[in-house]
Amino acid sequence: MSESTHSPASPSDVRIVQEETSGKNSPSTGTLSTEDVHLIEMLRRGDEAAFVSLIDHYHASMLRLAQVYVPAQSVAEEVVQEAWMGVLQGLKRFEGRSSLKTWIFRILTNCAKTRALREGRSIPFSSLPDFDTKSNMSVVDPDRFLPPDDPVAPGGWAALPSSWENIPEDRLLSEETRMRIETAVMALPPHQCAVITLRDIEGWSAEETCHFLGISEVNQRVLLHRARAKVRQALEKYFEEE
Questions:
Q1: Among 62, 95, 118, which residue terminates a domain?
Q2: Do 113 and 173 sit in the same domain of this protein?
Q3: Would the pTM count as exceeding 0.70?
């Protein structure tokens, strides 16, 4: 990890994080997998390769999630570094009350919330603008639908979504396409970014995501739908450029 100009988390900060993530109030999303148990053993032995592998796997997603709480990327990077420090210092006390990934991301959000307080940006997750899942906000451009008084198909599609069947596979799987997807995800409102990151990038289940973010199944489903629709729209524009 790169050096940071911000001082690392203090011992008291790390202690609080460890207590919150290993105590009775920790989220319980299932017992540890055999893979988790093996990885934790290697990490506790100081296996550097295992820790590097863990960073490679989670660092980018942690950075995206940190930016929900502290939008400035430089601050988010410092938060992620503090979180990794908390992981290293908390390994011996980790009791396996949650999966390893949930424990790591819980440390991250605790660090992010603490830093948000320092930055004077303490906003409840449920009060962020995109959390209003009852809003009538359309996730698709209204111009793509026929008017309600259309004689043939009122409210129907005026322009169907583009088909990607004829797009060469190498373009669909290209590095540039991946970068466009990441850019589209990062441009999403905070809740949508958090939900699509956990569900579609990290592969978390709906139950895990709801429990971790403290939102209902309905909210999670609506936010994910909105996020996916916006990312698809961004990709449609990209594929239509040629």
A1: 118
A2: no
A3: no
